[in-house]
Amino acid sequence: xxxxxxxxxxxxxxxxxxxxxxxxxxxxxxxxxxxxxxxxxxxxxxxxxxxxxxxxxxxxxxxxxxxxxxxxxxxxxxxxxxxxxxxxxxxxxxxxxxxxxxxxxxxxx
Length: 109
Known about the structure:
The chain is mainly beta and 109 residues long. It has two domains: 1-57, no CATH class; 58-109, no CATH class. It is 6% helix and 37% strand. It is built from one helix and eight strands. It has one helix spanning 2-8; strands spanning 12-16, 30-36, 51-55, 71-74, 79-84, 87-92, 96-99, 106-108. A three-stranded antiparallel beta sheet has the order 1-2-3. A three-stranded antiparallel beta sheet has the order 6-5-8, with no helix packed on it. It is globular and about 40 Å long. The mean pLDDT is 95.
């Protein structure tokens, strides 16, 4: 219900599995739905934002990635496999993880 409301309020963004500069962009498919709880475009003076990510597919490629800022992840529904330097872990509903921006990981459904 909340996600439908956020969609109606135009606070949903569909992220594709590849960008327009990718040679096979015409084959792009939805990878994640991003819902903005606070700001669709966060002002630079505000220190954080709150987002809901609805994952539709595994992370791109074979490698790991990091993020541009520290983040907290809370699993609200379903779950995923997270690959870290220390191993591969199942993250289920209720899991809360605190990560630094330089934390390398991979997410697979």
